[in-house]
Write a structure and sequence with these properties.
It is a single chain. The chain has a single domain, classed as Pectate Lyase C-like. The strands form 3 sheets. The protein has a two-stranded antiparallel sheet with strand order 1-6. A two-stranded antiparallel sheet has the order 2-3. It has a two-stranded antiparallel ribbon with strand order 4-5. The protein has 2 helices and 6 strands. By secondary structure, the chain is α+β, with helices and mostly antiparallel strands. The radius of gyration is 13 Å and the shape is globular.
């Protein structure tokens, strides 16, 4: 499935559980959108605006992003793995800085909230479970 939502204005959209697999979200404005449980596997998140968005429970395997901004994102856990079946972290909530390390290449100055207060604007290659585990020093 492919969906071109590039440059769309989706601020405050209720996209809970939406199938956005392989969606092109280049430059899309998803500020304050609810993406809880959304399937973003393989999605293109380049220059996507996610300020204040809810990402808890989103499936992020192979999502690709660079230059996206995510100030004050709410994210307690995500799902990884090709089928989106691997909860991360397996128990509890993401710790400060963990979601930033998932996306890597962070810039200073913006804020993101994942499990607790932490923050950055991120740039990254595709997210894959093994790369994520290595980046975070977590055994899978």
């Amino acid at each position: 499935m492919y969906c071109d939502l590039s440059m769309c204005m989706l601020r405050k959209a209720d996209l809970r559980g939406a199938n956005l697999r392989y969606a092109d979200l280049f430059g899309a404005e998803l500020d304050n959108a609810n993406l809880a449980g959304a399937d973003l596997r393989g999605a293109l998140l380049i220059k996507t605006q996610l300020a204040g968005a809810v990402l808890t429970g989103a499936k992020l395997h192979a999502a690709m992003g660079s230059g996206w901004s995510a100030d004050d994102v709410v994210c307690e856990y995500v799902y990884l793995g090709a089928r989106g079946e691997e909860r991360f972290p397996p128990d509890g909530s993401l710790q400060p800085g963990q979601i930033e390390r998932l996306f890597g290449g962070l810039r200073r100055g913006s804020k993101k909230r994942c499990g607790a207060e932490a923050g950055k604007t991120a740039e990254s290659p595709a997210l894959h479970g093994s790369r994520i585990s290595r980046a975070l020093g977590v055994r899978r």
